[in-house]
Amino acid sequence: MAFQDVKVQLSIAYHPQMDGKTEIVNKGLKTFVKCMCIDVPQDWSKWLALVEWWYNTTYHNTIKFSPYEVVYGQQLSLYLPYLLGESRI
Length: 89
Fold this sequence. Notes:
3 helices; mainly alpha
């Protein structure tokens, strides 16, 4: 299938080494999770929503937008409310 210059490359489950792009994304996500849960490693799952938000709002060179902009057609508002008690600092 070559729709809009997209080529399908089938890979085997649990082997993202196929093209290197997946490995890079996984490495970034893994590093982000490690940094967020360094104090309490067993709480890693609590950070997944933030990891997803980080990935979806980060500029991607290949598409020249963030995934959020592609899906919703607008830039993300930079206003992030502070939730009382969410930070120890």
